[in-house]
Automatic annotation (TrEMBL):
GO terms for biological process: base-excision repair. InterPro entries: FPG_cat (IPR012319), FPG_N (IPR035937), H2TH_FPG (IPR015886), Ribosomal_uS13-like_H2TH (IPR010979), Znf_DNA_glyclase/AP_lyase (IPR000214). Residues 235-269 form the FPG-type domain. Keywords: DNA damage, DNA repair, DNA-binding, Endonuclease, Glycosidase, Hydrolase, Lyase, Metal-binding, Multifunctional enzyme, Nuclease, Zinc, Zinc-finger. Residues 2-106 form the Formamidopyrimidine-DNA glycosylase catalytic domain. SMART domains: Fapy_DNA_glyco, H2TH. Belongs to the FPG family. Gene3D superfamilies: 1.10.8.50, MutM-like, N-terminal. It catalyses: Hydrolysis of DNA containing ring-opened 7-methylguanine residues, releasing 2,6-diamino-4-hydroxy-5-(N-methyl)formamidopyrimidine. This is Endonuclease VIII. GO terms for molecular function: 8-oxo-7,8-dihydroguanine DNA N-glycosylase activity; damaged DNA binding; DNA-(apurinic or apyrimidinic site) endonuclease activity; lyase activity; zinc ion binding.
Length: 269
């Protein structure tokens, strides 16, 4: 599932490609991916232009010049592609937005969605999310205080969107590895130094992953060499049995509260 780096990467790339161009055509192949009727969606979107592309947690927000908002959540298996019809991947699309010669293809939205909101509806929809990892108000002190009040494990804590929004299975493991902490640790058991390490690791891993275009494997557009580059840079995620890059011990695969989890039992404490 796309997480903070993937969605922030998509946001930055799309912001330079689709802003201020009117949407010339709307194709809906799966009405269940919408929260309104296909007719209402088409009436609201057709002819509108996207003024800004924003992100909140794992979701993208397309701000239309009609004061309407499209909220995208790719969920598990969702991806995006932008380009002309002749370059589209051989994948079924649920929604397509045409900007003239190029289209934005929403692919794999079997669990994901593209919902239409006004401002108040959007704020209500996002109201239950926790702070962004880079929220200006999320200081190291506040982060540590949030840890001390949280039950469960670091794995379940970092992936709890009501506690901290944007991190999922992949980056929770990568962050714990970078901090040298077992994802099975209780948040309240971390001392001040360990809490600071986790905070620093969170920012470092997410920045590194964003710079490498996240771990999504399919290019966003034809000729895109950046998207997905972080997949080869993961230290523990989906690396069961491979030698740890720090100590050489095999990476362990486990399940923590039904979530798959990867870590090194030797150099993570």
């Amino acid at each position: 599932m796309p997480e903070w780096p993937e969605m922030e990467h998509y946001r930055k790339q799309l912001a330079r490609m689709i802003l201020n161009m009117p949407i010339r055509q709307v194709i809906v192949n799966r009405p269940k991916s919408l929260n309104v009727t296909e007719e209402n969606f088409r009436q609201a979107v057709l002819g509108a232009a996207i003024r800004r592309v924003e992100r909140r947690a794992k979701q993208l927000i397309f701000v239309l010049d009609t004061d309407k908002y499209l909220l995208l959540h790719l969920m598990l298996g969702g991806i995006l592609f932008y380009g002309p019809e002749g370059e589209r991947p051989n994948r079924s699309t649920q929604i397509e937005l045409s900007f003239g010669d190029n289209r934005l293809y929403f692919i794999g939205l079997r669990l994901g969605y593209l919902h239409l909101f006004d401002r108040s509806g959007l704020e209500k929809e996002l109201s239950g999310l926790g702070p962004d990892p880079f929220d200006a108000a999320l200081s190291p002190d506040r982060f540590r205080s949030m840890l001390h009040g949280k039950k469960g494990t670091l794995k379940t804590t970092l992936t709890d969107q009501k506690w901290l929004a944007g991190i999922g299975n992949c980056y929770s493991d990568e962050i714990c590895f970078a901090a040298g902490l077992l994802p099975t640790r209780g948040p309240g058991s971390l001392n001040q130094q360990e809490g600071q390490r986790l905070y620093t690791a969170m920012h470092g891993v997410l920045h590194e992953a964003l710079a490498a275009g996240g771990y999504m494997e399919m290019p966003l557009f034809n000729g895109d060499k950046l998207t997905g580059s972080y997949n080869d840079l993961c230290k523990v995620y989906d690396r069961p049995g491979e030698p740890c890059v720090r100590c050489g011990q095999p990476i362990v695969f486990d399940k923590v509260s039904s979530r798959k989890c990867f870590y090194c039992t030797n150099c993570q404490t």
